Amino acid sequence: MLRILIVRLSAIGDVLHATTVVHNLRQFLPDAELTWLVSPPASTMLEHNPDIDRLLIWDRRPTDKAGLRHPLTAWRELKKAQAVLAPYTFDVVLDIQGLFLTGLLSKMSGAPRRIGIHERHEGNPLFMTELAPDIASPHKIRRYLTALQPLGFDAKNFRPGIVLTLPPELADFAATFWPVHGIDPTRPILMVNTRTTWPDKSWEPAAFGAALRDLPSEVQIVFSGAPNDAPYIAEARAVLGDVPNKVISIAGETSLMELAALFRSATLLLTGDTGPLYIAEGVGLPTLSLWGPTSPDIYGPLTSGHTFILSPHSCTACCKTRCQHHTNACMRAIQPDIVHAKLCELLEQLKRNRQVCFNKKPM
After folding, report:
1. Per residue in 115-168, pLDDT tens?
2. CA–CA gap between residue 23 and residue 232 (Å, rounded)
3. For residues 236 and 270, is the Cβ–Cβ distance under 8 A?
4. Where does 90-184 show beta strands of DSSP type E?
5. Would you tell me how many other CB atoms lie within 10 Å of the CB of residue 112?
6. Residues 6 or more apart in contact with residue 343 via CB below 8 angstroms
7. What are the backbone dihedrals phi and psi of residue 122, each rounded to the nearest 5 degrees, phi first?
8. CA-CA distance, 288 to 77, in Å (whole number)?
9. Residues facing 309 on adjacent strands
10. What is the pLDDT of residue 316?
11. What share of the chain is helix, strand, coil (3-state, %, to 5)?
């Protein structure tokens, strides 16, 4: 039996992307023992994944915080990672994050064969025994998938699709949550995620508010997010103003998996390029996503049911966490009336096709 360790520590969207790779690996090598090393909070996305035999959790955040300024602290945290890995034996490591840190962890695993991917990254090849072949496609999932090719996987057999399995205890979560918040689950529910992990991937709150005006009155608008998203949601709601639609915010009220359970019962998600987009893909919720400094050609869902609005600005897809011009011009160039029109079109399509809760995956 081949014992394989997958190393992808973070972030939420990237970890969900990597579930596609592990699902294809499971189909290709059904008898292999698959272990995944991951860090919180992304680890919650994998706890019930049927393709993973063993989940090893190590929190990378203290190491990141320590950095080079506190080497002894960083070393103590790495020793914790070594202790997590020590009880197990691996034949192969697939490092599909490609950092210096993940390369070091791959080496610590003791696996004689360590396969890396052609990414940017920080001296990672120093720890690999081989690199997967480079490919022309820029899409992250397809690039992650190259790590399987040295094992004999034929990319022509690739099956797209994020795997996100909810725990049984959340089976009725939405059915009890929505009525308490005044939401009718038999009517359309538009989820709205206003913020992203990179500030410059975020659309202006006022633009969200403008885009959400004059939607069909039966559409219920639910803002989601973290507790610190509340001021941005409040700004969006102020611009939205007094509308006949039911409008609520649930920011900070759910865990990530509880949010996934709500997504399963919703109609559509409006969001930027951030973790909830891929959570939605994992549970079968259609999405309308807004793109500026990143590109759906690199990060976007590969499955059907997902619509992209790309910034018309000349400076787009730089993939930088901070705008080099300090203007966030690419996201500002997306006009609310364009987003509004696309929202109305998609909501009408879902209504016409009787797919208000369409394509939901089983728990």
Report:
1. 999 986 679 999 999 999 999 999 999 999 999 999 999 988 999 999 999 999
2. 37
3. no
4. 92-95, 113-116, 130-131
5. 10
6. 190, 211, 212, 215, 268, 270, 288
7. 50, 40
8. 40
9. 290
10. 83
11. 40, 15, 45
Secondary structure of 131-149 in the HEC alphabet?
ECCCCCCCCHHHHHHHHHH
Distance CA(162)–CA(108), nearest Å, equals: 28
Could you identify the residue written with the tokens 């609310």? 336
Q: What does residue 232 show for φ and ψ, rounded to 5 degrees?
A: -70, -40
Residue 118, CB-side half-sphere exposure with 13 Å CA sphere: 12
Instruction: Determine the straight-line distance between the first and last CA of the chain, rounded to whole angstroms.
Output: 29
The Cα–Cα gap between 246 and 240 comes to 12
Q: What is the pLDDT of residue 359?
A: 39
Distances (CA, A) of 13 to 17, 47, 65, 279: 6, 15, 21, 8
pLDDT at 354: 60
Residues of the chain with pLDDT under 50: 355-363
Residues 6+ apart with CB under 8 A from 89: 3, 110
pLDDT of residue 23: 97
Q: Are strands 268-272 and 220-224 parallel, antiparallel or unpaired?
A: unpaired
Distance CA 253, CA 255 (A): 7
3-class SS string, 68-91? CCCHHHHHHHHHHHHHHHCCCCCC
Residue 206, pLDDT score? 97
Whole-prediction pTM: 0.93
CB atoms within 10 A of CB 127: 20
Read off φ and ψ for residue 268, nearest 5 degrees: -160, 150
186: exposed, middle or buried (Cβ count in 10 Å: 0-12, 13-18, 19+) = exposed
Question: What are residue 50's phi and psi, to 5 degrees?
Answer: -75, -15
Q: Closest Cα partner for 225 from 275, 154, 181, 178? A: 275
- Find tokens 């759910």 and name the residue: 254
